[in-house]
Amino acid sequence: MPQDFAEWLRGMLRQRDMSQKDLAAAIDVTPAAVTAWIRGRSEPRYEKIAAIAEALGVAAEDAVSRRQPGASSAELSWVFRKAPADGGREGGNAAAFAFAANLEVLAREATQNSLDERLPGGHPVVSRFVLHELTGEHLEEFLEALRWSEIEKHLNAAADPGQKVGRVLLDGLHELERTRRLVLLRVDDYNATGLTGPDYDDGRFARVVRRTLDSGKAGAQGGSYGLGKAALWAASRFGLVLVNSTLSESQDGRHERRMAGRLELPWHALGADEFAGPAWFGVKDPDRDDAARSWWGDEETARSLYLERNDSAAGTSFLVVGAYDGSGDTEQLEEMHERLTTGVARNFWASMVRGETAAPLLRASVASWRNGRVVKAEERIDPHRYEPARSRAVKAFLDRRTVPELTSREDVLEMTVPLKLPRLKDGEVSDRTSPPTHDAVLLITPSGDDEPAVDHISYMRATRMVVRSKKIGDLPLGHRNFQAVLLAGAATMKDTPDVEAAERLLRASEPPDHNDWTGTEDLTAMYMRGARQCIVNFKRLAEQSVREALQTQDDGQQGDEGPEVLKELLRLDPPKSSRTQGFPTIHAIEGAVDEHSAWRVTVTVKCPEREDPWVLAPVVRFTGRDGGGIPVRWAGRLTPVKNCELTEEGNLLFRGRRGVFQGVTDVASHPVPAAMSRIEVDVPRAKETKA
Q: How far does Cα 432 stand from its chain's mean position?
């Protein structure tokens, strides 16, 4: 907030491009009087302040409170960053390629960011995903409010089919022109901090809207790379996201409807003018060339941009314009709704579990609309519906109702798993008062036969987001189904010195997509040698603890067979007969990048026995860090090598149990250079009937 009226008045005159002389004439005072106000030698009376406000076109309350005035829609415009003079070009924001471009990844990253910004006080953060499909007049009205005419020419100029980002833009523009349909995805959070801080200097607003690879997170918060926010822009066909934030602490004397937009484009040119790529939507800043600052909007502007918020609770709404699933698996509104619901439930079921006295960390919901009408009513995600056994385990822990041994199907066994805390390179953990280990909590509970993904262990910390869910091998023969949950760091709900140290270690061991605890560059930079082995040993010990809990022999029973339910959990049943695999699978892949920067592979396919031959349509993908795949094309036709032949449609017909073919990828379809990639090949059945 400005310190005094003089500072406020100087800033407003710059914004309105008004001279002191012009203001003096407008309010019928001498130029000397205005000079005295500007220099802080005196302040005007209230009636003159009201006149000043009218002359400047702002509310009298803004002048009295010395706060930044709201902006009208007529003041808004898009401002593009000029290309650097050295001729450098950026082909897009590299942070957007750190994850697979699908809606489940978006749900994961956006919800984690909301949890990281949860306000203190024990209340859950509320996360809402709202889909809007627009056609007809609803679409035209939105595009007009967005100033589409100002950015469409830039989008067309940047839509270079020779570049990955350009191809996505071109496809999005063609899709909009062909269908006259646009999907918006609004991601709301409430009871969160909001985008606080100034427009340009350090703060949450600048980190999200202005900068890339700037996290600003620490302690028990999720990311350390500043990549999560990029998932929002990656989920837009146009790289376009708008924001509306209610702040937990004032900025420029205001809290509500801090609005802005950012468009992520690659380098492009319009005539003789070259642009670096990014653009910002807001009010032109008179103090900075080619810059637009955020604006304080009104309710009508928020509604026209589909950014209205339900109540005055602090938090932020992100609007992804042209939302889509980059994997191509979901296109229809109803499918997108289900994908978002599944993504939140799969990754944050534990965050949504409520105890008898402990509130959940998160409440999440998904809703879908089409041209202002409800398609799917808002669905609040129930963790016990999606993960009944795991949710039961976490609830028992929150309610302090875990047991030292299993005696019923509803019981939850609690154990501890030690995590050795290695030394930091700066010596912070080397002093004698620092704890050498952290005791994580391991929960084990029986699982119903009809539950998916049984016999898994889920790792989590801090906000109880699932970092990884892994099937445990080498289990006792004939064991009953179970689920295990490993709570580490702040997820143990302990207030001891080792918790902070464990959070710091595990946070450093997470890769950008937060899907494991492993060796990372951050871990190497922060800790003495051996830190990675501490993580590996921790995970191994957790799995071994589960195996030991399931052993059929219990030394403490001294010949007693133990409780009936425990016997059922550990009973020895004859091994189930293996079922014949019902579909072809990849047996082996050999390949390398050739002199043309293409992947050249030889693939062996294993086929189940059957009378009719298998007709398959092999596909190839570049794989991301989170396991997601980006489809690429084959260059020309595939080459049969053994026990297979090419069909007229270009598919492969396999005869026998094992066949071999060769293929080369099309370099023009590569999202990144082949040397920087890994690939996977799949063999779905072809949509054809003739051999």
A: 39
Two structure tokens written together for 632: 């690429």
- Give the pair of three-digit tokens for residue 565: 């339910």
- State pTM to two decimals: 0.75
Integer angstrom CA distances of residue 687 from 448, 615, 616, 662, 684? 37, 8, 8, 21, 9
Q: What is the mean pLDDT of residues 166-186?
A: 95
- Alpha-carbon dihedral sign for residues 477, 480, 483, 488: negative
Query: Residue 557: pLDDT above 60?
Result: no
Characterize the bridge pairing of strands 268-270 and 373-380. unpaired
Share of the chain above pLDDT 90, in %: 58
Handedness of CA 287, 315, 183, 238 (dihedral sign): positive
Q: Is 536 exposed, middle or buried (0-12, 13-18, 19+ CB in 10 A)?
A: middle
Alpha helices (runs of H) in 228-332, residue ranges in sequence order: 230-234, 299-304
| 666 contacts: CB under 8 Å, gap ≥ 6 | 598, 632, 633, 634, 635
DSSP code of 553? -
* pLDDT reading at 578 higher than 50: no
Q: Strands 482-488 and 456-461, how do they pair?
A: parallel
Which ranges of 91-135 would DSSP assign to H, the alpha helix?
103-116
Angle at CA 574, nearest 5°, toward 568 and 580?
Answer: 120
pLDDT value of residue 95: 56
Q: What is the C-alpha separation between 312 and 425, in angstroms, rounded? A: 45
d(CA 391, CA 483): 10
Residue 62, pLDDT > 90, answer: no
DSSP 3-state of 519: coil
Q: How far apart are the first and last CA of the chain?
A: 75
pLDDT digits over 601-659, tens only?
Answer: 999 998 888 888 999 999 998 875 544 578 899 999 999 999 999 998 899 999 888 89
Residue 256 token pair: 């509500």
Tokens of 281: 């939507």
Average pLDDT over residues 242-262: 93
Interacting residues of 484 by C-beta distance below 8 A, sequence separation 6+: 393, 442, 443, 444, 456, 457, 458, 472, 542, 546
193: confidence class by pLDDT, cuts 50, 70, 90: very high
C-alpha–C-alpha distance, residues 53 and 126, integer Å: 38
pLDDT at 215: 53
